[in-house]
Specification:
The protein is built from ten helices and eight strands. It is an alpha+beta fold.
């Protein structure tokens, strides 16, 4: 059957386009070949993609040290301190020097076992001090009661002094999704006094923000007469005054000698 005039014009136009744009034709051929290869080797392509994704995650994890377990304050990168990064930890004990906390890194099911440097090794805890706080003996006892061993806490890094970390220590409330700062809590209960923030410049924004926050907690305790700010009642003050009076002390001595 003879071709119509319109069909001949269409074929001629297509041939003319291909002759004028050979680059476009070659590009189409390359894309077709790649698509055909991907279809024929689908499993291989998937494995390569998975491998690249895993390699990327490993590089990222190593670069930002998401899954690194720190055994000492000196191992923590300086940028973590500068950016006030929060680390998760497990309480071991409360001592006169501070809190002994074991760092618990983020766990990734596949990567953590592969990249762990301390498999099956019991690592020593890090020494942590409540930043901006001077604990009383009663405050230390309160922490021992409220931070049981193996309890999880969050350490917001403020500064580092030798092998000690100065942190804001937070703990989740039982039955609540919210956490509270132990630094503020001991001050609010009158179990500590505010202290200078070690390792933080006094003219820095961080220093004044933290100092203001902690000072407010201390003022609350002082106004409410809690802990070390507790005031004796009128009867207790009167009794103490009489008991410490010189005349009363002399009378006690006389009665004591008479009794002997």
């Amino acid at each position: 059957m003879p071709e119509t005039t319109r069909e001949r014009e269409t074929d001629e136009a297509q041939t003319d386009r291909q002759q004028r744009d050979p680059g476009s034709q070659s590009s189409v051929n390359i894309v077709s070949l790649i698509s055909q290869f991907a279809d024929d080797n689908l499993t291989l392509v998937r494995n390569i993609s998975t491998g690249l994704a895993v390699a990327g995650v490993i590089v990222i994890a190593r670069s930002i040290r998401l899954i690194t377990k720190f055994q000492a304050a000196s191992e923590i990168p300086a940028r973590f301190i500068e950016r006030n990064v929060s680390l998760r930890g497990k309480v071991h004990s409360i001592t006169e020097r501070g809190l002994e906390v074991e760092h618990v890194p983020i766990y990734l099911p596949v990567l953590s076992p592969l990249l762990s440097k301390h498999k099956g090794v019991c690592t020593p805890p890090m020494l942590v001090h409540l930043a901006g706080v001077e604990l009383t003996p009663e405050g230390r006892v309160w922490l021992q009661k409220n931070l049981a061993p193996a309890q999880t806490v969050w350490l917001k890094l403020i500064s580092r002094e030798d092998n000690m970390l100065h942190c804001l220590v937070s703990q989740s409330r039982q039955g609540s999704m919210w956490s509270y700062c132990m630094n503020k809590e001991v001050l609010k209960l009158g179990l500590a006094r505010t202290a200078p923030l070690v390792g933080v410049l006094q003219d820095s924004r961080l220093y004044w923000r933290l100092h203001k926050r902690l000072h407010r907690a201390e003022v609350k305790a002082e106004r409410r007469g809690r802990g070390l700010w507790k005031q004796d009642s009128l009867w207790e003050r009167a009794s103490k005054t009489v008991w410490d009076n010189a005349l009363f002390r002399l009378m006690r001595r006389i009665f004591k000698r008479t009794g002997d």
